[in-house]
Amino acid sequence: MTLPAAPTDFTLAEARDAVRARKISSRDLTEAFIAAVEDARPLNAFVTETPERALAMAKASDARIARGEAGPLEGLPLAIKDLFCTRGVRTTAGSNILSNFVPPYESTVTQNLWDAGAVMLGKTNMDEFAMGSSNETSHFGPVFNPHRSRALNAKLVPGGSSGGSAAAVSGSFCLAATGTDTGGSIRQPAAVSGIVGLKPTYGRCSRYGIVAFASSLDQAGPMTRTVRDAAILLRAMASVDPRDSTSVDLPVPDYEAALEAGVKGLRIGIPKEYRIDGAPPEIDALWSKGAEWLKAQGAEIVEVSLLHTIYALPTYYIVAPAEASSNLARYDGVRFGHRTAHAHDITELYEKSRAEGFGAEVQRRILIGTYVLSSGYYDAYYLRAQKLRSLIARDFTQAFESCDVLLTPATPGPAFAVGEKTADPVSMYLNDVFTVTVNLAGLPGLSVPAGTTQDGLPLGLQIIGKAFDEATVLRAGRAVELAANFTARPMPWWRAA
Ligand code: GLN
What we know:
Blueprint: H1 12-20, H2 26-39, E1 46-49, H3 51-66, E2 77-81, H4 108-115, E3 119-124, H5 163-170, E4 176-180, H6 187-193, E5 196-199, E6 220-224, H7 227-237, E7 267-271, H8 281-296, E8 300-304, H9 312-327, H10 346-357, H11 360-373, H12 378-399, E9 405-409, H13 425-429, H14 436-441, E10 445-452, E11 458-465, H15 470-484
Parallel strand pairs: 2-3, 2-4, 7-8, 7-9
Antiparallel strand pairs: 1-3, 4-6, 5-6, 5-10, 9-11, 10-11
């Protein structure tokens, strides 16, 4: 094994093997990443840094390694999206209303990671309550993409809502990170930040202890620099959980073992409805290239139809706000979170706590959600959206009769400038055009860095699979990764000169 020069350049797999072989201690690795996190503060990727906890965890890891008791992620420093409750560590969901919330319990996914030996570097910035596609709705300010355009001198968004995690992985401030994806929040930031992001099948990972946005769509997943790393991290995150009745009791496969099997004989579906007007020509060009790469490796390309795709965004932007308005009713200033100092009675306490605690995008979603659920509008909006959701899911079932996975673009464009789309929510919502369908249908979707724009900005391709067939999704993703040979790394412009 030839090791990279700096420990922060390790992939998760390389670091795992090096720690296991005692070529580097968890302590040395962790110290290198703590320094990188500090160095990266101008990017605003972390809401909370936990260096003391990281060092204590690294020490315990080194002791376990010395005793020959290493877990699958032993001693490996990770970043955690600030939507996962972490016992004793502030968990904000990117919101003012939870800015002082310290959970007394741990999410199942993060508990699984600590049980596997992983080390926590800190909690990453995100759009408020995971609502957004650019990380600009965070109460803690925007995150900046480590990548910059060769043509433009602007700071770019890292995508969202898992923007802090995407930036932290892309800039090598952690080995890997967790994200959550309700309508694209793992895959879209991964694509525009030049990293790998996987939204697993609904039910693959437990949602227990993850601050809820839209419960029928939310799913946790890995954000990493390679497809292999996503396979490793997913295995550690996934489990059935008695505390989440929607988590599924299926064995968690060794995704890494199946990774290099190749795509010979695999049928790759190309959904024609994903060719959208107005998308930059480089998106379509990359998509065609992706199909050629897979074909050259022995896959068969078939055209398929996902007829109801045009309804996906309106459906999602009814279902998700409806569920959000219900989930966010719990933030009333009484039990936990921000409480106004200016209330004279209980009604005013609710109103002012919520008005002070929630940002504009969250308030917009609550208004939309309450509206579509209100009597008189329920049938016209919510019920119709539910019917369309079934049709969208059925499209996938039918498409999978003639193919094994689907290949699509991950986003309609590269990272955009901070502030460019904040004035127009609809243009922001359009970023999710290729990702929301997958959440509505509950399927696994993987974004793999596959190329760059003329100006050097990362673009991703998406592989969509059958329910609980992450193994095939990862295998096809690995084939794309091999052919794409994506090497664009950000220049550390944020470092003090
Ligand atoms: N961007 C989408 C939204 O704003 C998806 C967010 C997510 O997946 N959490 O709702």
